[in-house]
Amino acid sequence: MKRLFSYQNMLDHSSVLSGKERSIVSLSQRFYFVTVMLATAFMVGSVADPALAGEPVLQEEESDVIRLPPVTSHRILVQDVVGEHAKDGRVYVVDADAGKLLGMVQAAYNANVVQDPGGKAFYVAETVWSRGNRGDRADLLPAYDPQTLTITNDEVLPGRALITPKKNDLSISNDGKNIYVFSMVPTSAVYVVESISHKVAQTVDVPGCSLTYPWGNSGFTSICADGGLVNVSLSGNHATAEHTTPFFDPEKDAVFEHSPTRRPDGRTWFISYSGLVYPASLSANTKIEAAWSLQEAAGMKRAPAAEAPFVKTWRPGGWQLSALHYASGHLFVLMHMGTFWTHKQAGTEVWELEVDTHRLLRRIRLPHPSTMVGVTQDARPLMFTTDKAGAFCIWDATTGKFLRQIPHLGEDLYFTVALGE
Q: How many CB atoms within 10 Å of residue 26?
């Protein structure tokens, strides 16, 4: 408006202006008044129009819980230890038919996971500290609803084995009533947790032995440092332990802790670093059969053990290096070309073998080395592998054909858990 006043002042003193100059000033004033009035009208109109002046109405958010479909044979739990920041461990819930991630639950430092045989729940054994990396330690066994992924019970354990996750750190009886938690607090022991009451029913000391290989509804076996086993029979709140004689030499040719067990009848196939397979029938009176060779099943010479450590040949290796399809008795083993002490090396092939006849059925070449192999337990089984980038690779276990993958599902995929396994 300052400029308007200056024009008005000029008109007030128009006597000093020529006629032509007064016409220019008068025209300029009219133009300026018209411009100001239009602008003012626009602003007034804008304010008066609620459609233009009002704040946008935001839609109110409503929280909800999505229920997943019931558990199926091809809905898989995948353990990711996230090695570079291991306190951020996870368990992924994957639809293997669709190649789709359905959900995820947290699984803190070096956790383990096991699933109820009927898919009613799954359990994660984990450890946390009150101040992040220090303070009071809490060992937990949360039970998860498999459809909402919510915690239904959060049992506090007396302790557990705080070591790199292995499938047999945490296992479950065939009827799902007993959960076995391997502990090293302060010495080797197994906590028997009742899944119904969510309470530790008893603690079974297993000095010099570790892990749990469940058989039937009332017992488990642990593997011992002398090359033997201890069989634990449970009856109410009473446990009876019986030791076997050693069947392998842990100094010359140890067996992998990740050897597969068929839980309903306790049949287990212990695989050694050199590639020997020791069939065992686990029970209160475990029986161990003569060993056979993976390499001989493939028409090769039996691989030497620690007595000839530099001989290069096909050998088993990886992390979860083997999986068993219960009904067919087909054993899937990760194999690589290497010397004796390469038992942690990723497999470049999966060998499918028949455990009853010791016959090699198929050699599946992998596009990328894998430290993990898993398999489902249905009539049309799927097989799973991974790669260095954390892809979740899905195969037809009947034909050995690659089907699909979930690229970079996680950081460090260690093992899978399938329904009924």
A: 14
